[in-house]
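Discussion board: Methods & Data

I've been asked by a reviewer to show the raw model output for two of the constructs in my manuscript, not just the figures. I'm not sure how much to include, so I'm pasting the format here to get opinions. Each protein appears as its amino acid sequence followed by a line of discrete structure tokens. Is this the kind of thing reviewers expect to see in a supplement, or should I convert it first? Here is construct A:
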Amino acid sequence: MTDPIADYLTRVRNAIMAKHKVVLIPGSNIKKDITKILYDKGYILGYKFEDDNKQGNIRIALKYHPETKVSAIKKLQRASSPGLRKYANARELPRVLNGLGIAILSTSQGVMTDKEARKMNVGGEVLCFVH
């Protein structure tokens, strides 16, 4: 697999389209950080890191509206890819839906949202957009 983050996003996107409640994803540290951000911002119901003495798995409980069954995640899009990395400094950080969505960045201070990066005045690689 050449792009594990794109695989992560695709698995979540496919589970949402199929209306699954839970999705199982092979784990890595950056995927765990992205999952924590999605949980903190209210895009998923919960998560569990399962250890199998190798890379482990991430079990994510997806969030849907109780009546309309519409997912909390409308769009999940990869910004940077292994063939074309997208970097932004602190002044050029992208805004998603004029602040209604989030951009997830990998910075020297760790993985964080665009709002946190602006507050800390750091830039980095733009991993993905969520809204």
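Construct B, same format:
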Amino acid sequence: MLQTLTNCEEKMKKSVNALTTDYMALRTGRASSALFDKIRVDYYGQETPLNQVASVSVPEARLVVIQPWDKSLLSAIEKAIQKSDLGLNPSNDGKLLRINFPPLTGDRRKELAKQAKTTAEASRVAIRNIRREGMDEIKKLQKNGEISEDEQAQAETDLQKLTDNYIGQINKIADDKEKEILEV
């Protein structure tokens, strides 16, 4: 029974961490090096993460500078950024890439906020699915006589408290991200 609760909590933590990671890659009005975490560059025939072939820095609120360690990768990095769904166009000066982040339009902000809500709802659904699986496992333990009805009731209460806690965390993260996206 205790193992069931521990397993459910681990899965719920992973769901919250996945949401946080997804939100890092969601563009807001500010420049962030985390936006480039999912970009992969063709490096001698291998798809390599951008941060392993270049340094990504944010010297100003609306500017990202990418400096490859191997100058021959400059055009490959530029193409990878242009192909990504970030909608950014880097300027290449032969040594490094500069990416200016234009202010987001009102429509684009609303679209990103909607995308953030959809991602948060998917995380909530994942948490609820974990709870359902945990409840099924607890009922099975009781049915097999491994735990009493009282232990079953306590385990179900504890699992519900866990679920409420993690859904609360998701709601807070989603609200914060929505505020960040909508602020001008």
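Answer (T.O., handling editor elsewhere):
This is acceptable in a supplement if you add a one-line summary per construct. For B, something like: The two ends are 49 Å apart (CA to CA).
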